[in-house]
Amino acid sequence: MPNENFNDLAAFVTVAREESFTKAAAKLGVSQSALSQTIRGLEERLGMRLLTRTTRRVSPTAAGERLLQTAGPRFEEIQAELAALSEMRDRPTGTVRITAGEHAAVSVLASALEKFLPDNPDVKVEIIVDYGLTDIVAERFDAGVRLGEQVAKDMIAVPISPEVRMAVVGSPAYFRQHLWPETPQDLTAHNCINMRLPTYDNIFAWEFEKDGRELRVRVEGQLVFNNLAMRREAALRGLGLAYMPEDQVHQLLDKGELIRVLEDWCPPFAGYHLYYPNRRHPSPAFALVVEALRYRT
Questions:
Q1: CB neighbours (10 Å) of residue 25?
Q2: Rounded CA separation 138/16 (Å)
Q3: What is the CATH number of domain 166-265?
Q4: Neighbouring C-alpha atoms within 13 Å toward the C-beta of 221
Q5: What is the pLDDT of residues 119-145, one digit of tens each?
Q6: What stretches of the chain adopt beta strand conformation (E)?
Q7: Which CATH number is correct for 3-88, 1.10.3720.10, 2.30.110.10, 2.40.33.20, 1.10.10.10?
C-alpha cells in the first residue's frame, strides 16, 4: 500500500475505536462526509468491508477487527515516540494513567506523588482504583500496580514499596466480650468485618501463614465493606475483627485503640511493584514518575 494511504489507516482506527463517524470526524478535525469517503476508498482498495454501519453505531467486521488489532498498537507507538521527541525540547509534560488497588494508591502512590507533583507542574497523574488484574494494554493504562508475585513475566516490574504485612485487629471493647483467637480457624467463631472485591464480586478470604503452612479462612460477620476506611472504623467501634494492612492501623495499635491478634500468623510478603509492557518506549514524563515511585532501601 502506498505511503500516502497511511492516513486512511489512521482514520479507520479512529472510527473503529470511537464506533462513530461523527465522533471520529470531530476528533480528526475533518468533515463526516470526507471521513466516510476516506473509509470507503480504503475498503475498495482492500476489496473488503471493514466496518458495519447501522443507525446507532459503527462496528468493525471480522476483517476490520483484525486490522484494528494489528494497526492500532503501531499507531500508538508512533504517536508515543513523536510525543517523546516533542517533550525532549521542553520540560516533561503529559498525563500518566495508573491502575492500582486502594491500599497501594493510599499508602504508596499518594505519598510519593505528594513530593513529585509540585516539582513537575506539567505532569498529570491519573490513578484508577481497581482490585482486579487489569489488562493495562487493553485498557490503555501506562502502568499498573500489583504485589510482586502477581506481576506477569512479560512486564517490566519496578519495586515501589517495602514488604507488606497484614494484621487482624479488634477494639478493647470487642475483646471484653470475646475470647482472643489462638489460631486462624478460631476466627469462624468471631464476628468478622469482611471485604468485598468489587471487580470479582466475592468476599475476600483472609490469608495466613506460619512455619510454611498456608491457610485461607473464609470468615463470617455482620458487616461487609469495599474500602479500607470503613473496615477500620467498624473495628474501632467494636463491631468485629478486621483484616487490615499493618500500616493502616499501626498508630491505632500504638495508642491502644485497637488490639492485634494472630500476629505470628501474618508474616510479611512481597511489596508492590509498578509494571508496564517491556516494549513500551517511556516518555520523559512517564520515566520521571517511575523514578519518583521507585522504592530504594
A1: 21
A2: 15
A3: 3.40.190.290
A4: 27
A5: 999 899 999 998 777 788 888 899 999
A6: 51-53, 58-60, 94-100, 123-129, 143-147, 155-159, 166-170, 192-197, 202-203, 206-210, 213-217, 223-225, 241-245, 259-261, 272-277
A7: 1.10.10.10
